[in-house]
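Q: I have 117 residues here and want to know how they pack in 3D. Can you give me a structure?
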Amino acid sequence: MPSRAEQPARRETLTRQAARRQAVDVLRVAEAVAGYSARQLSNGLGPEAARQAALDAAGELELVAGTLRRLTRLELNAEQRRALAVQLAASGLSQRQIAEQVGRSKRTVWGYLRGRS
C-alpha cells in the first residue's frame, strides 16, 4: 500500500491513465462515426438526405472533439495552459474560442494574453 506521501502522485497517475483510456475509446467512436457516415453518403442518398447525414456526423464529431479537449486539459499545468492560450491567440482565435479550448474563463484567458495570470 502506498504511503500517504505517495498517494497524491499515485492518484494523479491513475487519473492520467484513465483519461488516456477514455481518449482511446472516444477516438474509436469517432472512427466508427466517420466510417458509418462515409458508407451512408456513398449509398446514393439524395441531396437532402446526404446533407442531413453529413450534419449528423459533424454534430457527433463535435461532441468527440469536446470530450478530447476536456481530457487534454487534465494533462496541462497552468504554465502549459498559458502557453497554449498565447499560441491559439497567435493563430487568430478569439478569446471565447481560446477559453473553450483551454478550459478556462474568458477573463482568465484575457489575463494569460496580457501576462497577468
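Q: Anything worth noting?
A: The chain has two domains: 1-75, 77-117. The chain has five helices and no strands.
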